[in-house]
Amino acid sequence: MTALFRRLASRRLCARDHAGFSSTNNGAGTSSLRKIFESVAAGEVRESTHSQRSLAQVSVTDAMHDWRAMEYDVLENYAKLDGQRAARTGFPEVVYSEGKTTEHVTQILLAMRKTQDMVLATRVSSNMASIVMEHPGLADIHYHSTARILSVHAAPPPGRQVVCVLAAGTSDLPVAEEAAVTLELAGVAVQRIYDVGVAGIHRLLRHRRAVEEGDVSIVVAGMDGALPGVVGGLTSKAIVAVPTSVGYGAAFGGLAPLLTMLNACSPGVGVVNIDNGFGAAVLAYRILQSKSSG
Fold this sequence. Notes:
One of its GO terms (biological process) is 'de novo' IMP biosynthetic process. InterPro entries: P2CMN_synthase_LarB, PurE_dom. Pfam families: AIRC. Pathway: Purine metabolism; IMP biosynthesis via de novo pathway; 5-amino-1-(5-phospho-D-ribosyl)imidazole-4-carboxylate from 5-amino-1-(5-phospho-D-ribosyl)imidazole (carboxylase route): step 1/1. It is a single chain. The chain is α/β, with parallel strands linked by helices. It has 2 domains: 93 residues, no CATH class; 139 residues, Rossmann fold, CATH 3.40.50.1970. The chain contains 12 helices and 11 strands. A 5-stranded parallel sheet has the order 8-7-9-10-11. Strands 3-4-6-5 form a 4-stranded mixed sheet, sandwiched between helices. Strands 1-2 form a two-stranded antiparallel ribbon. The protein starts with a helix and ends with a helix.
């Protein structure tokens, strides 16, 4: 157990990752937690817990108790905010707004901005956005209408790595923009390549060099969902495929393109859920992190 805390204490708990946002929250809790871990790592431990204790004499049990106490913040009976998610996974918690009331989304965003550098909500309708933006505590919030994203902070300067976001058709843009905006808010440079579906394959071929020069490609398509497989045959870079619910009856709300992508002849194509632009962005982000640390 003590070895675990030595490893945790040796990490830069507040270090910024390559994309520009803090990998943990910057609140007072992080500083206290660091002191606790450093005390345990230094071997300054004891067996019992007393009501009055100093950071110089803290047990592993005490440290674990304080760590667990900081795992999440409770908002009444409707939300538990995971403030340590970025520390565990490299990407902070984000609000999925569908199914939530406007009041819940507002209060969650207000609480999250106290502890996170990157604060955003996905799947926000224009009506919900207009109400949330009226709150005085969220006066600086921005609504990305096509992506249906609310963000409380501006996008940081982009890093050197580039993600290409390709969309087969204009109808796929809400999903493509959800991915693109999420990445930009995380500090990743994005190259948008839109309306390059297989019905006019020459449009895609004009962008072949840009795709190959990018570090990862997110390929969004509905209808037959053939575009990711085609792109997979043109580049050596990782591809994240996103099926959309765009299409006529036999597309079955995105099931047809999903199955096409899962059965892509081109190897190395990863597939996320239908319309999940956010999930594609996080997967691409993790691929970039792996490349940076490799």
